[in-house]
Design goal:
With about 300 residues, the chain is α+β, with helices and mostly antiparallel strands. The chain contains seven helices and seven strands.
Length: about 300
């Protein structure tokens, strides 16, 4: 689907067709729509193939006056089950007349721009518009990282009270999400550093300041994701040790109980044989079993087996 937007009187307005200075939003476009855009703006077909590849990593490329920027953007993968976060590539093509964004599914960051939730956006200022998209993507990373921290703390409190598989699986999903975030943020950081060093995109002084703000946000996200990942890995290792220790304690108690129960069985088996044994009165095996069980219990208690 291809939709055209342009800022008119400080409002994001939907257009019937493209105009100079507009924003063209492509969400899972058809091949026919892609061919039309390639013909209208003389874009390399490889740009669209790269932007529509869900495994494409973050990078920047320039060809014939058009520039392709691919950034990883965070999304919530399973909002109804165990919450999982992942990243998807978002392609941004800067042409001489417009800005084109390509994504294979609805992206919450671009949806905010399309709905007019982001104020002060001017689609005709192409470079600043692209940098604003980057800043919102970086902010979304930080927002999700804070949510991940809250979920991790909540699951940790639940694990302290009850060692259940659901909480452990949720922590594993969160750990996987942090790994995706860390890799994507580092790739985005490299791409932004290339933009800053290479002057691939023409920028004014205000644009340069905005790019620096984006880099600061991205680097903060890198630090946060690495910190949370290290903390979560340590937490998972600690709880794995606790679970293993609890299992050892249960096995130790069960072994001790089994040993105590085996004493009356052993005594009754000996005195149940058809042989003459001393003190073969009916009360003696019971008393002997009780005494041996008490002595064994005392010894096991001293050795902290209970």
């Amino acid at each position: 689907m291809v939709t055209y937007y342009k800022t008119i009187d400080d409002q994001m307005t939907i257009l019937e067709t493209w105009q100079p200075g507009c924003w063209i939003r492509c969400v899972n476009p058809t091949q026919e729509e892609v061919d039309c855009l390639i013909a209208d703006f003389e874009i390399e077909p490889e740009f669209f193939r790269a932007a529509m590849d869900e495994e494409e990593s973050s990078h920047i490329d320039s060809e014939d006056g058009n520039t392709l920027i691919i950034l990883d953007s965070p999304i919530v993968a399973k909002p109804d089950e165990n919450i999982t976060y992942t990243t998807v590539p978002v392609g941004i093509i800067l042409t001489q007349k417009t800005v084109i964004t390509i994504s294979m599914q609805e992206n919450p960051v671009l949806t905010e721009f399309a709905s007019g939730a982001v104020k002060g956006v001017q689609t005709n200022l192409k470079t600043r518009f692209v940098l604003t998209i980057m800043l919102r993507i970086a902010g979304r990373f930080l927002q999700y990282l804070k949510q991940i921290e809250k979920i991790s703390n909540f699951m940790e409190m639940r694990l302290r009270k009850s060692m259940k598989n659901n909480e452990l699986i949720q922590l594993l999903d969160i750990e996987k999400s942090l790994m995706y975030f860390s890799a994507s943020l580092k790739a985005n950081e490299i791409t932004l550093e290339k933009i800053m060093r290479g002057r691939i995109i023409r920028m004014y002084e205000e644009d340069q300041d905005l790019l620096e703000d984006v880099l600061i946000e991205i680097r903060q996200g890198v630090d946060m994701s690495n910190l949370y990942l290290n903390v979560l890995s340590g937490t998972m290792d600690a709880f794995a040790s606790v679970i293993s220790n609890n299992l050892n304690i249960v096995m130790k108690v069960l072994t001790s109980v089994t040993l105590l129960i085996s004493i009356p069985t052993l005594i009754s088996g000996i005195y149940g044989m058809n042989t003459d044994l001393p003190m073969a009165h009916f009360w003696f095996p019971i008393a002997l079993s009780a005494v041996l069980m008490a002595v064994t219990f005392f010894i096991l208690k001293k050795k902290d087996m209970f």
